[in-house]
Amino acid sequence: MITEARQPPGGGIGIAVRDLKVAYGGTRVLHGVSLDFAPGSFTALLGSSGCGKTTLLRALSGFVPVESGSILLGGEDIARLPPEKRGMAMVFQSYALWPHMSVHQNIGYGLKLRGASRAEIDAKVTSVLSILGLAGYESRKVTALSGGQRQRVALGRALAVDPPVLLLDEPLSNLDAKIRLAMRHELKSLHRRLGLTAIHVTHDQEEAMTMADEIVILDAGRVLQKGSPEEVYRAPNSPFVAAFLGADNVIAGEARLDGEALAIRLPNGGETRMPAARRVEGDCIIHFRANAVHFGAGSTRAGLRLAGRITQSSYPGGVYRYEVETPAGRFLVDDERRANPGEAIELLIPTEEMHVFPAGMPSA
Amino acid sequence: MTTLRALPVAVLKVFALALFAFAIFGPLTNLALWSVAERWYTPFKLPVTYGLRYWEVVFRPTGDAMASLMTSIWIALLTVAVSLALAIPAGYALARLKLPMRAAIMILFLLPQAFPSVAIYINVARIFYQLGLTGTVGGVVLVHAAHGLVYAVWIAAAAFAAVDRDLELAARNMGASPLRAFFTITLPLALPGIIASAIFVFLESLDEFTGTFFVGVPQVSTLPLLLYNASMGGNYQIASITALILLVPSVLFMLFVERFLRADVLSKVGH
Fold first, then answer.
1. pLDDT at B268
2. Does any domain span residue B57?
3. Is A96 part of a structural domain of the chain?
4. Are residues A218 and A277 in the same domain?
5. CA of B129 vs chain A CAs: smallest distance (Å)
6. B17 and B149 share one domain
7. CA dist list (Å): A107 to A102, A103, B39
8. Looking at the structure, do residues B149 and B39 belong to the same domain, yes or no?
């Protein structure tokens, strides 16, 4: 556990990425990424594997050469500087701890390079270890530590040099589920305390949502959407983002603009009106989350109503989970009421849970 | 039932093991016997008189054997120095950098082994004669190094390749220059492999006969040449003792490899 040791806030520096292009051996991986990271913010780069999120992080840290574009760190373009001159500290997915060194030597390495005295290094290592709840581990071999402890030492090594920017490359993905959840909160509170600018790469939506102030969703080397967790979750700007954030049930329909409202009609019957989040006219696709759907009977919520039949039921706890077959497809439905397989029910997709996009927009 | 059926299998195993042990230890026992046999002639199956007289001859400080041993060790150490000076940068480059024709370069180091060595060494001797290198320790070291480089470079490349790239990048990320990262992270982690390759080159040099014969004789006499002369002259005792001395470093090396060289390094040799 992280103890509440006092740590002078180092203060983060903002980063501005402008039209960044990166290629590996002739294959373009980042196609002109432009992003702003506010000083002291916690941003998660979210995307599936191969979307370019790790490449973006490695371009920031200087491990992959930049083809064109700029990376402004507090106004200075660092895109062509070698990694050792960038002042960004990275926590690697593999931790990348040096197995021939002790915990003390690993954490003190950066300070030693900066010409710190022995006493300064000792003091800093002790303070970092106490913040990370590893007090007294100085002389341990890193190979003798557990996964969670290694992760902390890797974090400690990065924090020891008081970096203005902390880069996190899926640092929690190699941990057990339980430790992972605890570390999320520890990292988050540590970030809040130190005030540095953190950029966190992850493919785990929940991890990104719970830890970050800002979420950047990447696909195929491009930024699709940037916003707070609520914004990207509630108002995805594309079918890809909607599907990536769990709204992966799709039904086709037809939309018509009617003043400020959007009238939706399904080919097999069923229609509703909703506030127009975006202007859609003609054929459309509607994304929604399985867990946002429930039985329509007895509900007055506005939304699309579909006739269906229960094909499976289970009780994961709290509510019942049903698989319902409808003319538009099979969906998972959560409801508090108890029903039996074979029963005919009405299914309700509330309008505020529907994400409507013009048909033909690229999807996941 | 099972014990009954297992018995023939066990007997077969023991027999195979005994055969294997005999194949290895038989000649060694013969060597050991010869080294302590002061008189041994037909029709006797075992030496007639035992004694350490020939050991005394070999280890006499003024004797040829000690001089040859010293020359051998000196040449082997110089060969290791020359090989490592080339193998460390070459191995790192082959492991890390995107070199064009990487496979061709790896094969290039193999070439000295690929052709009949006598043919090569006769030509080397001719060229070295023009350069004034025949009969010198330097000439012999060059021949041994050319021979040892294939092991040195291949093993060094494997040792560097086994060091996770991220470990180096982490050092750079913490502010280390490329050179600093190499000397504080990469080299220490690759060291067991490098040491193994050094020992291998050392042993190869200690053992080398053909090249030394063509380039070094008569001025430079190493232990294998002494062994050759002794056995040609019918002095089996001296030859056996020399052979036993040559055996010691090999056994030590096997123990080192078994103890320090990790499987992930060995698996990368030649890749």
1. 65
2. no
3. yes
4. no
5. 48
6. no
7. 9, 6, 68
8. no
Residue A7 placed within a domain? no
Q: Which pLDDT value is given to residue A266? A: 86
Pairwise CB contact (< 8 Å): B174 & A113: yes
pLDDT band at A364 (very low <50, low <70, confident <90, very high): low
Residue A166 CA from chain centroid, whole number = 16
Q: How many other CB atoms sit within 10 Å of the CB of residue B244?
A: 16
| Cα gap B67→B62, rounded to integer Å | 8
Region of residue A298 (phi > 0: left; psi between -120 and 50: alpha; otherwise: beta): left
Q: Which of B148, B18, B136 is nearest to B81 (CA)?
A: B148
The helix (run of H) or strand (run of E) holding residue B241 is helix B236-260
Only one residue has tokens 């992280």, namely A2
Indicate whether A184 belongs to any domain. yes
pLDDT of residue A318: 86
| Residue among A84, A94, A157 minimizing CB distance to B172 | A84
Domain identity same for B77 and B156: yes
State residue B262's pLDDT score.
Answer: 65
Number of domains comprising chain A: 2
Residue B189 within any structural domain of the chain: yes
Report the side by side order of strands in the sheet with A261-265.
Answer: A271-275, A261-265, A249-258, A282-288, A355-358
Whether residue B107 sits in one domain with residue B211: yes
Do B25 and B120 lie in a common domain? Answer: no
Could you tell me the sign of the dihedral formed by the alpha carbons of A182, A183, A186, A192, in that order? negative
A233 and A332, same domain (yes or no): no
- How far apart are the C-alpha atoms of A51 and A244, rounded to whole Å? 12
Highest mean pLDDT among A148-157, A355-364, B53-62: A148-157
Q: The CATH number of the domain where B238 resides is what? A: 1.10.3720.10
Enclosing domain of residue B25: 2-50
Give pLDDT tens digits for A152-199: 999 999 999 999 999 999 988 888 888 888 888 888 988 988 889 999
Which residue is closest to B175 within chain A, CA to CA? Answer: A84
HSE at residue B36, side-chain half, CA atoms within 13 A, is 8
Neighbours of B127 (CB within 10 A): 11
Rounded Cα distance between A363 and A279, Å, is 18
Relative to beta strand A271-275, strand A282-288 is unpaired
Residues of B within 8 A of A157 (CB-CB) are 170, 174
Cross-strand bridge partners of residue A334? A321
Same domain, B164 and B111: yes
Looking at the complex, report in whole angstroms how far the Cα of residue A168 sits from the nearest Cα belonging to chain B. Answer: 12
Q: How many domains would you assign to chain B?
A: 2
Are B173 and A161 in contact (CB < 8 Å)? no
Tell me whether residue B55 is in a domain. no
User: Of the candidates B269, B230, B183, B268, which has an alpha carbon nearest to the alpha carbon of residue B31?
Assistant: B230
Cβ atoms of B101 and B95 within 8 Å: the answer is no
Q: Domain containing A318: what range?
A: 246-358
Are B185 and A83 in contact (CB < 8 Å)? no
Domain check: are B17 and B75 in the same one?
no
Q: Do A161 and B188 touch (CB under 8 A)?
A: no
Give the Cα separation of B112 and B150 in Å (integer).
8
Shared-domain flag, residues B8 and B91:
no
Beta carbons of A92 and B174 less than 8 Å apart: no
